[in-house]
Amino acid sequence: MSMGDWIIGIPILLFCLIFPLYLTVANIIMCVRGPVLDMDRRLQKIYAFLTIFVGLIMYGLLTAAFNTNGDWYEAVYPDEMHNMICSDYLTSFYIVLGFGIAGLCTLAFMPAKRLPPLISALAVGFTVILNVLSLFVGIHIIKGLKQGGGLSVYFYIYHFNILLLSVYHIRNHIKEQLEIMRGRGNDGILYKVLSKAAGMSLLCFAMIFAAAAILLIIMILTGQGADGIVKAFTMTADWTFSTQIPPPPLEYSGHYLCTVAAGGHKKIVKPLRYGKRCGAVIIVNRQLCIANAFEELIHDISPKFHKQVRGFYDKHGYPLSKLITTPLRADIVYILMKPLEWVFLITLYALDTDPEKRIARQYEYK
C-alpha cells in the first residue's frame, strides 16, 4: 500500500471501529437518563437513526468481510464460509427485518399522540419480532464467527443497540399512551391494568400474534412458504442453525491457470463449471480446458516432449500462482494468456479430429 492509501485507510478504519462504540455509549446514556431538554430529544432521534440505518450498513459490510460466498450446495475455498442466510429465503428474512425496523422507527420517531391505536399496537408487535429475529441471528452466527476473533464483537454491538432502543422506546411509548388516556379522563379498568404493568403491558404484546400473522400471510403470498423464515437459517452450512452438509472445498492453488479461473472476476475469466484435479474440486473456465487439452494432445503425440513441457510448467506455474492474490491480478494473467490460448486452440483444431470433445472432457466432475 502507498502512503496515500494509509492516510485514507487508517481514518476510515478507526471510524468504523470507534463509531459503533461511541453510538453504544451515547444510546446507553440517553436510555438510562432519558431526554431532559428538547435538544436531548432531537439528539436522541439522531442517535437512533445512526444506530439503525448506518449500523445496518456497517453490519452488512462486516458480513461481507467474513467471506460469505454462495449457499450451502456451492463449493467454497477452505478459508471462506457459506452464506449465513439462505439466498432462496432471503425474501422471508427481509420481510421480517423490514417490518421490524419499520415498527422500531415508528416508536422512535413518531409521538404516540399522532398514532392511531391499531398502528401503535402493531408497531410494538413488529419491534418485538425484530428483536426475536435479532436474537436468532445472534445465536446463528456464533459458530461461524469463531474465526473472527475480536472483530466478531461488533456484530453483537449492533444487536445490543437494537435491543436497547427497542426496550426504551416500547416502554416510553406505552407511558405516552397512558398519559393520553389519563388526559382524556379514561381512568377505568384498562388504565389501571396498564399502570400496574409498569409501562410494559402484556396487552400491547398481544399484538405480537397479529403482527406475526401479517408477516406469515405476506410470506405465503410471496411464495416463501409459512416456514420461509425458519429455512432461511436452517438451509445453510457452517453456522449454528445450519442443517446442510456442503460439498468439498475448492482448490485454487497449485497452478496459475487454476488460480486464474477461480480467482478472477467472473465477467473477465468466465468460469464455466466445477471440475476435479487430483481429487480436489476446482473451478474451470474455457482457457484452462483448452490449455489442458493442448497438453493432453502433446502427450499423445510426443510423450518425451510433453515431459519437458510439464516440467517447465510445474517449475514456473506454482510460484506464479502464489503471486495471483487478487481478482485484478487474475484478470491480468487471463488477458496475457489469451494469445497463447489461441495458439493452443489453433493447434487443437489443426491436429485433432474432434477438438471440442477433447476440450469438454477436461477436468470432468463426476
Descriptive labels:
15 helices, single chain, mainly alpha, 366 residues, 2 domains
- What's the helix count? 15
Q: How many domains, in number, for the residues?
A: 2
Helix content: 55-70%
Query: What is the overall pLDDT average?
Result: 78
Oligomer: single chain
- Rg over CA atoms, rounded to whole Å, is 29 Å
Largest sheet: 2 strands, antiparallel
N→C terminal distance: 43 Å
Shape: elongated
Number of strands: 2
Beta-strand fraction estimate: under 5%
Helix and strand composition category: mainly alpha
Q: Which stretches of 5+ consecutive residues score pLDDT under 50? A: 196-200
Cross-sheet strand order for the largest sheet: 1-2
- Sketch the topology as an H/E string, one letter per element: HHHHHHHHHHHEEHHHH
Blueprint of the fold:
Blueprint: H1 3-33, H2 38-65, H3 90-109, H4 117-144, H5 153-183, H6 189-196, H7 202-205, H8 207-221, H9 228-234, H10 256-263, H11 266-269, E1 271-277, E2 280-285, H12 286-301, H13 303-323, H14 327-351, H15 355-360
Antiparallel strand pairs: 1-2
Helix pairs in contact: 1-2, 1-5, 2-3, 2-5, 3-4, 4-5, 4-8, 10-13, 10-14, 12-13, 12-14
Descriptive notes:
The structure is a single chain. The protein is mainly alpha-helical and 366 residues long. The chain has 2 domains: 3-234, no CATH class; 256-360, no CATH class. The protein has helices at 3-33, 38-65, 90-109, 117-144, 153-183, 189-196, 202-205, 207-221, 228-234, 256-263, 266-269, 286-301, 303-323, 327-351, 355-360, and strands spanning 271-277, 280-285. A hairpin with a 2-residue loop joins strand 1 (271-277) and strand 2 (280-285). The chain is elongated, with a radius of gyration of 29 Å.
